[in-house]
Amino acid sequence: MKTKRAYGYWESPISAEMLSGEKRLNDCKWAGDGETLVWAEGRGAQGVLCVKHRANAPRDISGDINVRGGVGYAGGEFDVHEMFAVFCGGDGRMYRVDVASGAPKAITPKYGSVATPTISPDGKWVVFVHTDGETDVLAVVDSHGLQWPRKIVVGADFYMQPAWSPSGDRLAWVSWDHPNMPWDGTRLETAPVEVDDRGLYLGKIEVWAGGPGTAVQQPTFSPNGKYLAYTSDKSGYSHIYNRDLSTGDVLRLTSGDADFAGPAWIQGLRHFDWALESTHVVAVRNERGKKSLVRVTVDCREVPIEPAAGYESVGQPTVSSLGHIAFFGSSSLVPGRLVTLLNGEDHRVDARSSNERVPPSELSPAQFVSWKFDDKKGEEIEVFANFYGPASTRFESDGRPPAIVMVHGGPTSQKTAAFEARNQFFATRGFAVMDVNYRGSTGYGRDYQDALYGEWGNVDVEDAVMAARYLVDADLADPDRLVIMGGSAGGYTVLQALTEHPGAFRAGVCMYGIANLFSLAHGTHKFESRYNDKLLGPLPAASELWKERSPIFKATNIEDAVAVYHGSKDKVVPIDQAEAIVGSLRSRGVPHVYHIYENEGHGWRRPENIKHFYESLLEFFQEHVLG
User: Fold this and answer.
1) φ/ψ (deg, to 5) at 302
2) Full set of structural domains in the chain with CATH
């Protein structure tokens, strides 16, 4: 029999300490023997490169070097060739390390930042993305670091995903320019590789796919050298295309209302990988937030990989020369794991993001929900969300629970069926949680993604408010105890909702959110410095809209309690954004809490800060929401 206790005060099996100790699984690749798996993971503020041979225990091979890609939002930490790896250090250098033994050795000087090292098929060269903060290029260095790195591709604003042909005679990559983001319009470029006594050079560059209004990703040559596969959203969804290199013919391999790629917020994303025999790719299929693993053949047949069916969100698939498939997998009840399907069949867990001490029966399963309405043009719109109800095997409460409407960042992003430790932290304490994939989110086609353009700070706010009403109308939440919570662009939506709809929520939680769009344009990093040109329009023509959509200019409308959190070293959303909004709250006596985390950037990585964040949030909710 369950014990009666008020919602929000249930004893939970998930502590703040447990969340602070979670690992981040970033990427995985096979070494040349087909049996040794290498992966990058984050432990607090430290990035680590790990290796595991067959069923042996894993080892760290990066020493005390912080493994981290340094371009944009990071990613693209390493590459493996035969039995050595090249990885990016947080100091801006690249390092080479033997997988079996030995210490890492720097192969590039300490200058700027690097990402996505890509080793040539003969193991002699490493092509990588480099930035000095202003100029991005593709550069090359010999794999032992005996020569000085050289630029080989320049001129575009951004680069990602360099790829070698199996013979090493051609290179492909993706580039794009301001004001586009990589999900707006990119180019798949390629050029022949030439090597002489002076080093490695590229011949004439050609564009093979993409362009204005079409986003392409991940050019990948087949092992037999016959094909170049890539993803493109020119059909309205991101599908896999295959180019026959001998004829130039291009065939779309996938179909349906599903995405086979996602927004390239980071370097090093991998949505599919070729099997050695070049007859098919192993790919990630995203249909309304559920990501499954499938085989896609070169004759356009799509077959689910059944041994992976227990994971409802998968990523970074990689296929070994022996046919083993490794990927990251999770579900709403299973924390992230590094999983290997031996010969595509037997299931093995090689690494875990958490200690998994909480049984699934104690957790809240995600429920996919949606609602429809007619927009201003009279067109029917469907909005999507994931709902987590209060969950406990020991406690129950009367009435309706308090609810947290979660707003993801980006804003071009998506909350999927992946494990969300944050949501479980609150659901197991008696909160209802709603993750809103508002208009502008990815995973539902290009039209849904682009619906935010010109409407940022408007339709995302509308959808968050509608999510709260949905919960109330369905008797899933107490209308007097609603919270809106988000970080970065989600924090911006929180502030917009509190200024445009005062009283709709009992409280708001803003993490490293945006208050002033004008100052953000001058203070953010290069990657997003022109993003607002797409979301709202370029200055000065759109200055009135920028002002209208900046929460700081209507901060006097905020009357609900607010919790504001920010990192002192945030280069994406500088801390002056938080200072501005908190200054208004303080001057008017609006209930609020404000926490600055030293030595943190855009989000928290240090365990002590993660622990404090969740514990302080509970205190804030108990004082301003539950009472």
Assistant:
1) -115, 120
2) 359-513+561-578+592-624 (3.40.50.1820)
